[in-house]
Amino acid sequence: FHHKHRYNIRLASKKDVHIKICTQENEIDNFYKIMQQMAKRQKYELFPLEFYKTVFRILFPKKMAVLYLAFFENKLIGGLFNLHFAGKSWYMWGAFDYNYRNLMANYGLHWTAIQDAIGKGLSTYDFQGIPDNPNPQSPMWGFYNFKKGFNGDTIHWLGEYDTCTKLSSLYKLANKFKLL
């Protein structure tokens, strides 16, 4: 790990951030509230609450879903939701309370999740994607640095692409003029 990440992991513990591995579906409700705050702040959309509950309800009994929650003074300040399958732990969703960002809960959460994955004999902890060409001016820069600081391998896959399955008239018209 990058030395700053090791420091932040220790800092979360020193500041009395406590990480809990959840076993009850109803604990997703509070995690979802933090996800809503973060989604609003960073301007992205979430799946409905019932989606996350369904994933948990189906996969938790099979030991394929884990919800980690971070608390400070008995207040929920962050969480992450991982899936375990194919010998890997996959980081799927996470959020933290921006007002408590100085407690470094995200570092403690991921460190706990990594230790949990190792304890379960999983070979890989997958943070999912990072930008291909990171730029310090990009809003994704912090996200990139956070993930890279854990010193994992970067694996390049095909990438993500959007396709229109039902073209609007305006889109068809625009394409028509491009072809002329």
Give a summary of the structure in a few sentences.
This protein is α+β, with helices and mostly antiparallel strands. The protein has helices spanning 3-14, 28-42, 49-59, 105-119, 141-148, 169-179, and strands at residues 17-21, 65-72, 75-85, 88-96, 124-126. The chain has a single domain (3-179), classed as Gcn5-related N-acetyltransferase (GNAT) (Aminopeptidase, 3-Layer(aba) Sandwich), CATH 3.40.630.30.
Query: In this structure, how is the largest beta sheet organized?
Result: 5 strands, mixed
The coarse overall form would be globular
- Average pLDDT value? 84
Query: What's the structural domain tally?
Result: 1
How helical, in percent, are the residues?
A: 40-55%
Measured between the Cα atoms of the first and last residue, the distance is 54 Å
Total DSSP E strands: 5
CATH superfamily: Gcn5-related N-acetyltransferase (GNAT)
N-to-C order of helices and strands:
HEHHEEEHEHH
Task: Tell me the radius of gyration.
Answer: 19 Å
CATH architecture: 3-Layer(aba) Sandwich
| CATH topology (fold) name | Aminopeptidase
Query: Under the CATH scheme, which class?
Result: Alpha Beta
β-sheet strand percentage: 15-25%
Spatial strand order of the main sheet: 1-2-3-4-5
Number of helices: 6
Structural class call reads alpha+beta
Residue runs with pLDDT of under 50 for 5 or more positions: none
